[in-house]
Structures are given as structure tokens and as C-alpha cells.
Design a protein that fits this description.
With 303 residues, the chain is an alpha+beta fold. 60% of the residues lie in helices and 15% in strands. The strands form two sheets. A five-stranded antiparallel sheet has the order 4-3-7-6-5. The protein has a two-stranded antiparallel ribbon with strand order 1-2.
Length: 303
């Protein structure tokens, strides 16, 4: 029988709105083929399915479905972390992803233990709640995702160039509402279940602002998390094709290109597999990347 649980109805509506919002953005030609946003969308879709599963488990008091919903939390965390990683450094792997996988593995183990979810009375209506360590790890993983996105949002906002600063401000507003504000209200659910209404409204508003910002200005997904001092591009034979120096140093293009050539010769094994080589300097980092036809040398800050 249907359990008249306001939390369930609110969650169901929120999950449906999240799925519709994420699916609609797949039709946009401006962002359709952006790899990082593809994974972030998958994470958001997984989040929507998780919320719908939680809603149905509360409306029909199905404890097993609440346990199953945990798997969508795991998918959401992995996809979002991969998307953020690829946005920042065009690589899926990071320490953050390993932490997420470790927490997810523990959560999967706990899911098969007895008593991890229970039907409880909350504000004079019955609902399904995660219990004990399963609840701590599960909620902690959700907060971890929020923190990961918020960190990326801060770095993007700080490093956004002046020409798209207005869009970056709008983007960061969505991140603030989507992550810390929503997380705070979700934590208050354990005090008063009706706080879920405010939390879900904040989640929807933040998500919509985030999606609109990235649709209007896809360059937000390509902002480097550091300041560039100099960049040079050369061909396979070592001849410079492009050089721009924001720091106005006294090192000439010829000397800088020769230095990059010397670094390549000393790092032949790394460069031959198309790897990325970085060298710590006193006040920055030298990044050297070789593709099939070109080599890019970049001097950046250490932030």
C-alpha cells in the first residue's frame, strides 16, 4: 500500500526533474561532445535515479530498494569524480578517485550486512532510513562528491579569465547552491524530515543554474587550475611555431625552444608514449606534452 510520506513525494518530484534536466542537455550541440561533461551528466543521472529509488522505497516502505539505491550513489560519485578530473587535467585517475573507490567498496560490503536500513517514524509518518556505519559512509560519500565539485567550482571561478568572468560568477552561484547549501539542509533532515523540501529545492535550483552556465559558456569546462606564464608550440623537427610570454621574461624563443628540445632528448621514453612530462622549477612548473605532430611546452604556476 502507498505510504503517505511527504518526503517520498518530494524526492520523487526532485529525481524526475534532475533526470529531465540532465537528459535535455544531451541535445545541445555546443556541449554534446565534451567528454568531461558527458561523465558529469552520467553522475547527475545516477544521482536522479538514486533519489527516485529512495522516494519509492519510502512511499512503499521497501527496505531492499533503499539498499539498492546505494549502488547509484556509487555510480554518481565515480562518474562525477572522473568528469571533474578530466576537466582539470584530461585524466580520469587521481587520489580523489581512489578515495571514492575505497569508500564505495566499503559501502558495498556493508550493504550485504543485516539491519543497514530500517523503517522508522519521522514527524508522524513512516519512512525508510539508512542505519549505523552504512548511513555514515553513504552520507559521507555524498558529502565527498559535493566537496569535490565545490573545490572544482572554486578553482574554475578563481582562474576564469576576465572575458567570461560574468559567466563564471553565474556558474559558481550554481555550484554554491548545488553543493554546500544543499548539503547543509540535507544534514538537518535528521533533525526535521521536512527540511528535505528546502534541500531538494536548493538541489534543483543549483543544478539548473550549473547546466545553464555550462551550456551558455562551454569554455568554463576548459579553464586550467593554474596561471600560465609562457607557452610555446613546435613541430617534430624542433622548429618553433608559436610562442607567447605573459611574464615578459628575457629568455628568447630560440633559447626556450632549445631547452624544450634538450628536455625531450633526455626524456625520450616518456615522450615517445605521448606522455606528459612536468619539471618543478623554483617559481613554477614546466609541462611538456608531445602529440603525433606537435610538442607543447608550458610554464605555469604551482597552484
Amino acid at each position: 500500500m502507498l505510504n503517505m510520506n511527504p518526503e517520498g513525494f518530494i524526492d520523487l518530484l526532485t529525481g524526475v526533474v534532475i533526470l529531465i534536466t540532465a537528459m535535455v542537455t544531451y541535445t545541445s550541440p555546443k556541449t554534446k561532445k565534451i567528454i568531461s561533461l558527458f561523465y558529469i551528466r552520467l553522475g547527475i543521472i545516477s544521482m536522479g535515479i538514486f533519489i527516485i529509488c529512495e522516494a519509492v522505497s519510502s512511499l512503499f516502505l521497501i527496505e531492499s530498494l533503499s539498499v539498492v539505491s546505494m549502488f547509484f550513489v556509487i555510480l554518481s560519485s565515480i562518474f562525477i569524480i572522473m568528469g571533474v578530473n578530466y576537466t582539470i587535467k584530461e585524466s580520469y585517475m587521481s587520489l580523489g578517485l581512489l578515495i571514492g573507490i575505497a569508500a564505495s567498496s566499503l559501502l558495498i560490503y556493508l550493504a550485504f550486512q543485516p539491519g543497514v536500513v530500517k523503517i522508522v517514524n519521522s514527524n508522524n509518518y513512516m519512512t525508510v532510513r539508512w542505519q549505523g556505519l552504512f548511513s555514515i559512509i553513504g552520507d559521507g560519500l555524498v558529502l565527498y562528491i559535493d566537496g569535490y565539485i565545490f573545490y572544482w567550482g572554486i578553482k574554475t571561478w578563481i582562474n576564469a579569465p576576465f572575458l567570461i568572468k560574468k559567466e563564471a560568477n553565474f556558474f559558481f552561484l550554481g555550484i554554491i547552491i548545488f553543493c554546500p547549501i544543499t548539503s547543509i539542509f540535507y544534514l538537518f533532515i535528521y533533525v526535521n524530515g521536512l527540511m528535505l523540501i528546502i534541500a531538494d529545492v536548493c538541489l534543483i535550483i543549483g543544478l539548473i543554474i550549473f547546466m545553464i552556465a555550462t551550456e551558455r559558456e562551454p569554455k568554463l569546462l576548459y579553464i586550467l587550475p593554474f596561471k600560465i606564464y609562457r607557452i610555446i608550440v613546435k613541430d617534430r623537427q624542433g622548429f618553433p611555431l608559436f610562442d607567447h610570454d605573459w611574464s615578459e621574461s628575457k629568455i628568447t624563443e630560440k633559447i626556450f625552444t632549445g631547452f624544450i628540445n634538450a628536455v625531450q632528448l633526455m626524456s625520450e621514453e616518456v615522450m615517445n608514449i605521448g606522455g606528459l612530462l612536468d619539471i618543478n622549477l623554483q617559481k613554477g612548473i614546466l609541462l611538456v606534452h608531445e602529440s603525433d605532430n606537435l610538442t607543447v611546452g608550458l610554464v605555469s604556476s604551482k597552484s
